[in-house]
């Protein structure tokens, strides 16, 4: 029997990561507070998922100052786009079986 | 801004649980070893995810003997079907945004 989970990527397993990647697929970059609001999560929770995705090189972080205020922006990488697309195709295949 | 994760169900967050529920949506019941093979996971991993889904009353467990061999079968509940369908619709909405 076939392993039906073989193309499902562990790195995207959590709904917060799905949300981050989905949002970054359609926006060139998004800052921390916008992402936080969009996903309805705490600072710590969001930061930890962003860190994991950065470690996998699926997203990049750009730190800058707007006036005196620090501002951190996130973007998806080429690798991130590729892997997330694969993941979504696998997910759709899995759930489409119903 | 809208919370884009609001209808994503935490209980289905892990890919193994997605796999279990997807398989049980289309089969009246499945036994432990078939599920294990289908998902390519270890006994302990599968048992722990099955327990969580049972606790939520999304699946039921039926223990029986086939000859002298114990056999455990799993089925989806009405609640499980309802909640999983909601989850899938939310997932599709989220990832369809790209």
Automatic annotation (TrEMBL), chains A, B:
It comes from the Bacteria. One of its GO terms (biological process) is regulation of DNA-templated transcription. Coiled coil: none annotated. Residues 16-95 form the Winged helix DNA-binding domain. This is Transcriptional regulator. It comes from Urechidicola croceus. The lineage of its organism: Bacteria, Pseudomonadati, Bacteroidota, Flavobacteriia, Flavobacteriales.
